[in-house]
Amino acid sequence: MGPLDPQIAEPSALAERQHGVVERSQLRALGVSDTRIRGLIRARTLLRLHRGVYAVGHRSLRLEGRMLAAVLACGPGAVLSHRSAAALWELRATERDRIDVSAASRRGGADAAIDLHRTGGFDAVDVAVHRGVPVTSVARTFVDLAGVVAAPALERALAQAEVAGIYDRAALLEVLGRSNGRRGAGALRAALDEPFALTRSKLERRMLSLCRRHRLPEPSVNSLIEDPAGVAATVRTLLAS
Fold this sequence. Notes:
By secondary structure, the protein is α+β, with helices and mostly antiparallel strands. It has two domains: about 1-60; about 60-200, no CATH class. The chain has helices at about 10-15, 25-30, 35-40, 65-75, 80-90, 140-145, 150-165, 170-175, 185-195, 200-215, 230-240; strands spanning about 20-25, 45-50, 55, 80, 100-105, 115-120, 125-130, 135. The chain has a three-stranded antiparallel β-sheet with strand order 1-3-2, sandwiched between helices. The chain is elongated. The mean pLDDT is about 85.
């Protein structure tokens, strides 16, 4: 991405650090006047994404840029949350066009591209910055996610967290201890009480559900086989007998 303007290199550097997006108050803090901002908008150097939030030079943003733009549009203290936070942490993919943001302020509520969730605020341990985007912590993300997805999806996300090395049961229980009455808290507690596995198909998930419902021993799912050739030979022998 080229410089924002030869005379305002600092905002250009800011945009580079922020996945190609800037917010009006950030530009003002760097000494860019409202008159200058309007001129950059007319010149299509600044391209409006949300009220007061702009892409610099083009709208071909990566996912992180679109997520950060939505967070900036919702004011100070806003963070990515729910399904969008799970996608940023790579716990669960989402195909939704709307981006989930949690904030205490009312700013950004009328934006059709943003799903704004009102909150009374966050404890410090409930927020983080991941890939340059303010976002709910992994543990808080799971509490929010539990309120908007079905139990099987929540279990798969927990399994993915374990595979990725970011599953922290103690942190989850600590957040749950502060989440009585929150939508999804009960569902998350129930999911933590069940063994969860990373499944790759509906058939695998149905099989696990069947085993649990009838209290049958659960098979290993997507486990590493040390000697696949030997296992294949054993299967062929059993099928031939």
